Amino acid sequence: MAQQPNSSAPAHLNRRKFLITASASALAASFPQLILANTTIADEKALSFVNLHTNETLQCCYWKNNQLNIDALAKINYILRDHRTQEVAQIDHQLIDMLHNLHSLTASAAPFEIISGYRSAKTNQALRNSTSGVAKRSLHMQGKAIDVRLPDIELKKLRDVAISLQAGGVGYYSKSGFLHIDTGRPRNW
What we know:
Blueprint lengths: L10 H20 L2 H7 L4 E8 L5 E8 L2 E2 L1 H10 L13 H14 L5 E5 L4 H10 L14 E5 L5 H11 L3 E5 L4 E5 L4 E2 L1
Parallel strand pairs: 1-4, 6-8
Antiparallel strand pairs: 1-2, 2-3, 4-5, 5-7, 6-7
């Protein structure tokens, strides 16, 4: 005997549930690597960067033999420094892993182009004074946010993969040509 739908639930809630399920299924079909990424442990994790403000480049292995490479992390901290004040801060390891996952899942062959990494409080305030959309308590000031792009991956695809990770915030700035990601609560704009 077929089970009758719950007639007490409003029709718009049943439609919403259907749309959410359908969207999640479509996303999973678009990025089947997500399933593999959650079941595979990498022996090595490497990243490469180009800092668009300083023209510095970095390619390093930050994870090997089940441990973080402290020297590589120091190099990542340096290339993601506040280029205006030259202040260096520790970048959140979860953010670094998010970048690694994004790079792997998109199958990019290019380094991340850095728009903005760590920001000092002074730089953040100067940006707030000169432009809109800069948060007063930006996670950039804690080393928990980065603005990047991958030149060989469509920005919209990069955004979709980042959102699918549900690992933090994702801001899509199509007119400016970059993606903001952070290790705050999962949300997107």
